[in-house]
Design a protein that fits this description.
- This protein has helices at about 1-20, 30-45, 45-55, 55-60, 65-80, 90-110, and strands spanning about 25, 85.
- Helix 1 packs across helix 6 and helix 5 packs across helix 6.
- It is globular and about 40 Å long.
- Helix content is about 75%, strand content about 5%.
- Strands 1-2 form a two-stranded antiparallel ribbon.
- It has one domain (about 1-110).
- The protein contains 6 helices and 2 strands; from the N terminus they run αβααααβα.
- It is mainly alpha-helical and about 120 residues long.
């Protein structure tokens, strides 16, 4: 049940951010649910591999390179999900930062545990 709530919260946040941020386009709420699922799967399977492969760069930049990896996850999601588009790399960086901050706030408000 916690997983369904997290997917729903992420989908709502994706829709909310797309309404206020230029360069982020989501066709419908169903698309935002698919985006939430795909982002979750990419973060589970692809992101750890990228982090491991770029560990030296991440250490040299004191972890700031993780923002680039998050942006790449967003851009990869735009390629996978039809109806979801992000205009460029910097838009994906800002989108990922805003989404991460809002997810942290929402999960703490809903009592969700970050496992």
């Amino acid at each position: 049940m916690n997983l369904i709530i997290r997917i729903f919260v992420t989908a709502v946040l994706v829709m909310l951010i797309s309404h206020f941020m230029r360069g982020v386009h989501v066709a419908s709420f169903t698309t935002s649910i698919i985006v939430a699922i795909v982002l979750g799967l990419l973060n589970i399977f692809i992101k750890p591999i990228l982090i491991l492969l770029t560990l030296p760069v991440t250490l040299v930049t004191f972890g700031l390179f993780l923002l680039v990896i998050n942006a790449l996850m967003i851009l990869l999601c735009t390629e996978i999900v039809g109806g979801f588009a992000v205009d460029g790399f910097w838009t994906a960086v800002f989108f990922s930062i805003i989404l991460s901050i809002l997810q942290s706030i929402m999960y703490s408000l809903t009592g969700g545990e970050n496992k």
